[in-house]
Design goal:
Layout: H1 2-5, H2 19-37, H3 39-44, H4 47-59, H5 68-71
Helix pairs in contact: 2-4
Length: 76
Amino acid sequence: MRWMRSPKGKLQDGRKITEELFRTLLEEELPKVKTYLGDEAWKAGKYEESAKLFESITTDDRYVEFLTLPAYDYVD
């Protein structure tokens, strides 16, 4: 969230980091992770849930000090 609010929040190619850009990049990268891991490892993990959690933490206005704190709600 900080990079989205900062005037310095730009990628090397000059694009401003926005919620829309973040969501687009997340959507593009998740299938790459699945391909890299393979089906068995993908199914054994919680990558889609993790991506949703990362998205909510990144785009929500509330401040989260540590990523792990809201992740505890997902631990079995």
